[in-house]
Specification:
Strand order of the largest sheet: 1-2
Structural class: mainly alpha
Distance between the termini: 21 Å
Largest sheet: 2 strands, antiparallel
Order of helices and strands: HHHHHHHHHEEHHHHHHHHH
Helix content: 55-70%
Radius of gyration: 23 Å
Strand content: under 5%
Low-confidence stretches: 1-17, 421-440
Number of helices: 18
Shape: globular
Length: about 450
């Protein structure tokens, strides 16, 4: 009896029969690559469904392991809260569209499936808290960013852009944009490329080895060449402004006082800058059409102010049938988001935007204080989110697949920086992490 008892106490509570590290890293790569729309150039972007499946797989595996290894408060925060948020958005927007326009709620629910990419971040966070090496995730993110850039350049070089632009298949024609001075341009995975470019600049500024320098140069060269193709001036301008403001306002905790000093000046300047921006916006080509589109959207928002019009579906009644004569929601920035999701949806969007930005700022400060240098990916995401803040009215990117992927990933990596778990623990090193640094009983301990 005593021998049996001794044997029972020596059994590890949580064990994995297989080393899942490679499988999990592959799922992370697929989710990031597909979430940033790397598969939009083939199979009508069906790779996104694989990315959703990978995100859900990471989330479910992390939730199961976390059930036995994390404090109950952490488990609820990273398992239940994301599920309620993501599924809640999908269900409510589908039901609202059904109420407003008698659309099929099932079609609308699955039309909003890109929100499921938001499970990527919670999955990564939970698995890293349960022992997966955070540095492995960073490495996979780098690989995915480079793969996205090479993937774009391959299709840019091999695709007949004119033929695609005039294709009767909207899944193809939407891949290419055209204007007189830039010609035909293949739409890039913009968020990933800009984050990669910023991260490359940060890496080369503090590289400690020749390999890091060469890698950073490669990333910068790829990102710079792609930008020379697409020539998104507003994006580059806001990114440059973010980088310039970083050492002045964001580089350390003491700089927050400067923000408080500058805030009243910014408030005084806001009406003037807004007026200048509005004049530029309306005087540009198509400005009158844009003004009419915004006026029509605001008029329709007043009909459904709280929850908006809801989520449409390509397989049933769609925005193309309802408002395409006046505008299309994705073309109107935050106003378009207000039309789709109402004031509650816009408020939720702004809350999540601020939450992600603050998490990245804290993580950047913590890493800089701890290591004496910035973490390139965290810093790049912080700069890009700052740039998105300046361009918020015209481009609420977090409401779409690329932004959902970036926001979810950024929140997870930033939260892991603050938690500061050891980065050298492998997923298969089980016994050293079970119950470590935990002051509460895991939720799953009640199951025994």
């Amino acid at each position: 009896m005593s021998t049996l008892a001794k044997h029972a106490t020596s059994v590890t509570p949580i064990s994995l029969p297989l080393n899942l590290r490679f499988i999990i890293m592959l799922l992370v790569f697929i989710a990031i690559f597909a979430g940033f729309q790397g598969g939009r150039y083939y199979f009508a972007n069906r790779l996104q469904e694989l990315g959703i499946a990978a995100s859900l797989g990471l989330y479910l595996l992390g939730a199961w392991r976390g059930l036995f290894m994390l404090p109950a408060a952490d488990w609820y925060r990273w398992v239940m809260a994301p599920a309620l948020l993501i599924v809640g958005i999908m269900v409510v927007s589908a039901l609202v569209f059904n109420i407003n326009y008698a659309g099929n709620p099932v079609y609308s629910f699955f039309s909003a499936r890109e929100f499921l990419l938001g499970f990527l971040g919670p999955g990564i966070y939970l698995l890293c808290r349960c022992g997966m090496a955070t540095r492995d995730v960073h490495s996979v993110v780098w690989v995915a960013l480079v793969a996205l850039m090479l993937n774009y350049l391959f299709f840019y070089a091999t695709m007949d852009l004119r033929e695609v632009f005039f294709s009767s298949d909207h899944t193809k024609s939407n891949l290419v944009t055209y204007d007189e001075w830039r010609g035909f341009r293949l739409k890039p995975p913009l968020f990933a490329i800009m984050v990669a470019l910023l991260a490359g600049l940060a890496l080369i500024a503090q590289a400690r080895s020749k390999v890091s320098v060469l890698g950073a140069i490669l990333v910068i060269a790829l990102g710079g060449y792609i930008w020379s193709i697409v020539l998104y001036r507003a994006t580059l301008a806001t990114m440059a402004l973010s980088v310039i403001l970083y050492p002045i306002f964001l580089a350390s905790r003491s700089r927050v006082q400067l923000i408080l000093v500058a805030a009243p000046l910014a408030l005084l300047a806001a009406p003037v800058m807004g007026h200048l921006a509005l004049n530029y916006f309306l005087s540009a080509d198509g400005g009158t059409i844009r003004a009419k589109a915004f006026a029509s959207a605001l008029e329709l928002i007043l009909r459904h102010p709280l929850l908006g019009a809801g989520e449409d579906s390509a397989y049933g009644l769609s925005y193309q049938d309802i408002v395409a004569f006046y505008f299309y929601p994705s073309d109107l920035g935050l106003v378009g988001t207000g039309y789709k999701y109402g004031l509650i949806g816009v408020s939720l969007y702004l809350f999540m935007h601020c939450k992600i930005w603050l998490a990245l700022w804290r993580a950047n400060i913590f890493h800089r204080e701890r290591e004496g240098a910035i973490q390139p990916l965290i810093w790049a995401m912080l700069m890009f989110m700052t740039a998105q803040t300046f361009n918020l009215m015209l481009n609420p990117g977090l409401a779409y697949a690329q932004g959902i992927t970036l926001g979810s990933l950024a929140l997870a990596l930033a939260s892991l920086e603050v938690v500061h778990r050891p980065l050298t623990i492998g997923l298969d090193e089980r016994s050293s992490i079970v119950g470590s640094a935990v002051n509460e009983r895991p939720l799953g301990s009640n199951l025994s």
